[in-house]
Design a protein that fits this description.
11 strands, globular, about 325 residues
């Protein structure tokens, strides 16, 4: 692995713009400020890349661990063209061989966490290599072409909040990253948590996304100029992602969050994208996304630790 694999992977990314944004080399370059990402490649005899597994090496508690960088919901395995065969046993055998080849290349670590995107559903080879699995969910709206039908499938209370918010709030876009970060911080402060990323980090990412025309910032304000909520939307070849969402807890009853989600969905429709809420499993957040009538979509988090001590550490840190 190392430099040669990265060079091959950069060329691979250039030829596969349909690959999810979080796996793209330029995304990893941006969010891994110390350059600490690498990639496993499974290649055919002729050198063709059949499957990829980018990963990040982290140093925690004095130990080397494999995980994912900030603001990156998933990495995991991606393959441009799994074998086409009418016989499922051939297809599965080929997939398992590719994934096993990727796993063999992962460096040794105290703990390894592979966060897979919804596109990856066959984790058999991981299971056979001692990994355990936790299933999580996000919410996805696949058909955005009929706005009236979309609005009708919202829960009644959500429709009412949007209508109410439209009367008292205005949605401004694009907006500054500084304004968004200020209101985004308040979401963490309400929970007594430190914001896990700095303004400098977010500025770095925002600059790259803005230059690539792959982001929009939505801000909801009232007539007095108070910022009620903000939403940071990004997109790739097929999907728009609700990457970040923040609201002022003192103004939480205004319906600003529901209004911004609705405006982001409408914006995604104009882009011709699927909308992914980047859902949370937290009980105070999950119902907000669920009430938009989206499809619940599973994805896998795969774990392997050196021993039970590090398994306990991972559970305690919820990593």
């Amino acid at each position: 692995m190392g430099l040669q694999n990265k060079e091959l992977y950069r060329n691979f990314c250039q030829h596969h713009p349909e690959m999810p944004i979080f796996l793209q080399d330029w995304w990893l370059d941006t969010v891994c400020t110390n350059g600490g990402w690498d990639v496993c490649l499974h290649q055919a005899k002729d050198g063709k890349i059949l499957a990829v597994l980018p990963y990040v090496v982290l140093h925690r508690l004095g130990q080397r661990q494999i995980g994912k960088p900030l603001l990156t919901p998933f990495l995991g395995v991606w393959a441009p063209d799994w074998i086409h065969s009418d016989r499922l046993h051939k297809r599965y055998a080929f997939q398992d061989k590719c994934v096993a080849g990727l796993i063999e290349q992962l460096p040794k670590a105290t703990a390894t966490s592979v966060y897979c995107g919804p596109h990856f559903q066959n984790w058999m080879a991981f299971h056979q290599n001692g990994f355990r699995q936790t299933e999580a969910y996000t919410y996805v709206l696949d058909q955005l072409d009929d706005e009236a039908a979309l609005f009708q499938q919202l829960k009644g209370s959500v429709r009412n909040k949007i209508r109410k918010a439209e009367k008292s709030l205005s949605v401004e876009l694009p907006h500054s990253i500084e304004t968004f970060y200020t209101v985004n911080q308040k979401t963490f402060q309400r929970q007594g948590l430190k914001t896990p990323y700095s303004l400098a980090f977010l500025n770095r990412l925002d600059k790259v996304l803005a230059e690539r025309q792959q982001r929009m910032i939505f801000i909801a304000k009232d007539a007095e100029g108070r910022v009620h909520a903000g939403l940071y939307l990004i997109w790739d070849h097929t999907t728009a992602y609700n990457l970040l969402l923040g609201a002022d807890p003192a103004l939480r009853n205004s319906g600003a969050v529901q209004l911004l989600l609705w405006e982001a969905i409408r914006y995604s429709a104009r882009l011709g994208k699927v909308f992914n809420f980047e859902g949370s499993m937290l009980p105070q957040i999950e119902p907000i996304f669920r009430d938009f009538g989206a499809r619940r979509q599973p994805y896998y988090r795969l774990y392997k630790e050196r021993n039970r001590f590090w398994q306990a550490i991972r559970i305690a840190l919820n990593k």
